[in-house]
């Protein structure tokens, strides 16, 4: 029996992962960029609180306190009431997780990459999605929020004690606020942990893999950009069959426009437009080398995100990806780019991404702390602990 199990969709993933959490005896380590106080977040919180494993930790990126349901949360009173309510519910849920329970022990909670007083640090994100449950690990793209659960996405369950130990070590590095680049090979699986500071060297082999493709490259993703798309375009220009499966209903329309423009400027590169929002991240080279994990294959992946990437030639797992991800995408998509796609949309996407690349190239993590323990109820006037304060609405809720 293969040690890999591909789960497409949040329902299939959560049924299996929640069973793993309930059965855990030693540890349940969960890491996500997005955690929200909605149905998905509450389900995870309940599973963590009910678990009997003594080591239960949740690591959430500070992104969750600046963006809720794809809505930015500056101190503005006119954000939708439901968004402000959910931001408050997220904090309250984390307080409940980290607080005392009937059994006398809560769940340890920490926040990666706090922005603090420098708004540019918002661009420096820990983008990992990871579960380590005893000797089982989960890797992929699913965050714990209802809107992410509604998208097409995937996670891969890996039943391998050595893999789980390696990924638990990367979790511990992030938990201590000392992330490091790391890589290891486990038979037919290679794992890469990106620290956000040395990504270019760690991801250079991916560009080489695309450059050496003999027959085909097939990618599923909502957000690919240069330098990865440059490598795909070059492969297409030399006759390799290159396809990017990407959603029409992209939650980041600027990146969809970038891909429209890329397809128009890259002879031989095929853009297959999917009817549903997909947040999955995978690439298949020559039908024999599979890449998956949390890497978006974009400029943030290249420059600054902390991420996990898995590379494998396991035939059974590749077959599962072919049947359950790539084949349905080929059947469901269309190659028709909107005929009235405006020139200004293409120009805007190129200029915006060029600016983002220039900024990320110059940003440094420096000596600022890269993790903050969740302390329970937060004093409202402590600016170092307030991520994305929502004006007086949140202040009133905390002062009751």
Task: Please render the helix and strand layout as text.
Blueprint: E1 4-8, H1 10-23, E2 27-32, H2 39-50, E3 55-61, E4 67-68, E5 71-72, H3 81-98, E6 108-112, E7 130-133, E8 136-140, H4 146-150, E9 154-159, H5 161-176, E10 182-186, E11 189-195, H6 199-211, E12 216-220, H7 228-237, E13 241-247, H8 253-265, E14 269-274, E15 282-285, E16 289-293, H9 299-303, E17 306-312, H10 315-332, H11 343-362, E18 371-373, H12 391-399
Parallel strand pairs: 2-3, 3-6, 12-13, 13-14
Antiparallel strand pairs: 1-9, 2-7, 4-5, 6-18, 7-8, 8-9, 10-11, 11-17, 12-15, 15-16, 16-17
Helix pairs in contact: 2-3, 6-7, 8-11
What does this structure look like?
- Helix 6 (199-211) packs parallel to helix 7 and helix 8 packs across helix 11.
- The protein has 400 residues and is an alpha+beta fold.
- It has two domains: 4-179 and 370-399, Endonuclease, Chain A (2-Layer Sandwich), CATH 3.30.870; 182-362, Endonuclease Chain A (Endonuclease, Chain A).
- The chain has helices spanning 10-23, 39-50, 81-98, 146-150, 161-176, 199-211, 228-237, 253-265, 299-303, 315-332, 343-362, 391-399; strands at residues 4-8, 27-32, 55-61, 67-68, 71-72, 108-112, 130-133, 136-140, 154-159, 182-186, 189-195, 216-220, 241-247, 269-274, 282-285, 289-293, 306-312, 371-373.
**Poorly predicted ranges:** 377-400
From the 3D coordinates, which CATH architecture of the largest domain would you assign? 2-Layer Sandwich
Largest sheet: 8 strands, mixed
What is the alpha-carbon Rg in Å?
Answer: 21 Å
Provide the spatial order of strands within the biggest beta sheet.
1-9-8-7-2-3-6-18
| β-sheet strand percentage | 15-25%
User: What top-tier CATH class of the largest domain fits best?
Assistant: Alpha Beta
Counted beta strands: 18
Helical content (DSSP H or I, runs of 4+): 25-40%
Query: CA-to-CA gap between the ends?
Result: 55 Å
Number of helices: 12
Number of structurally distinct domains: 2
Shape: globular
CATH superfamily of the largest domain: Endonuclease Chain A
> What sequence of helices (H) and strands (E) makes up the elements?
EHEHEEEHEEEHEHEEHEHEHEEEHEHHEH
Task: From the 3D structure, determine the CATH topology of the largest domain.
Answer: Endonuclease, Chain A
Structural class: alpha+beta
Mean pLDDT equals: 90
């Amino acid at each position: 029996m293969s040690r890999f199990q591909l789960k497409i969709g949040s329902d299939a993933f959560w049924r299996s992962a929640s069973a793993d959490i309930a059965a855990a005896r030693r540890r349940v380590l969960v890491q996500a960029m997005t955690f929200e106080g909605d149905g998905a977040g509450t389900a995870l919180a309940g599973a963590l609180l009910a678990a009997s494993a003594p080591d239960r930790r949740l690591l959430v990126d500070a992104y969750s306190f600046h963006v809720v349901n794809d809505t930015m949360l500056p101190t503005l009173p006119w954000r939708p009431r439901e968004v402000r309510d959910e931001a408050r519910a997220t904090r309250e849920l984390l307080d409940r997780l980290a607080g005392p329970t009937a059994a006398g022990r809560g769940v340890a909670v920490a926040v990666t990459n706090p922005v603090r007083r420098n708004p540019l640090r918002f661009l420096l994100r820990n983008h990992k999605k990871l579960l380590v449950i005893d000797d089982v690990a989960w890797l992929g793209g699913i965050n714990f929020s209802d809107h992410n659960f509604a998208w097409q996405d995937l996670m891969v369950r890996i039943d391998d004690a050595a893999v789980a130990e390696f990924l638990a070590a990367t979790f511990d590095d992030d938990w201590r606020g000392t992330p490091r680049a790391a890589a290891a090979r486990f038979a037919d699986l290679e794992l890469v942990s990106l620290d956000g500071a040395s990504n270019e060297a760690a991801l250079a082999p991916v560009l080489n893999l695309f450059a050496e493709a003999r027959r085909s490259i097939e990618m599923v993703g909502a957000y690919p950009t240069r330098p990865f798309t440059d490598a795909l375009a070059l492969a297409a220009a030399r006759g390799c069959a290159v396809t990017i499966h990407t959603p029409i209903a992209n939650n980041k329309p600027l990146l969809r426009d970038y891909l429209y423009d890329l397809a128009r400027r890259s002879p031989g590169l095929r853009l297959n437009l999917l009817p549903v929002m997909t947040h999955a991240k995978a690439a298949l080279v020559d039908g024999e080398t599979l890449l998956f994990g949390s890497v978006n294959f974009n400029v943030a992946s290249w420059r600054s995100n902390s991420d996990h990437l898995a590379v494998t030639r396991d035939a059974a797992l590749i077959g599962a990806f072919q049947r359950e991800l790539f084949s349905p995408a080929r059947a469901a998509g269309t190659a028709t780019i909107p005929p009235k796609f405006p020139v200004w949309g293409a120009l805007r996407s190129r200029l915006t991404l060029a600016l983002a690349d220039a900024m990320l190239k110059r940003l440094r993590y420096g000596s600022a702390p890269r993790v903050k323990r969740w302390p329970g109820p937060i004093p409202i006037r402590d600016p170092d602990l307030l991520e994305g304060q929502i004006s007086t609405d949140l202040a009133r809720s905390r002062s009751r």
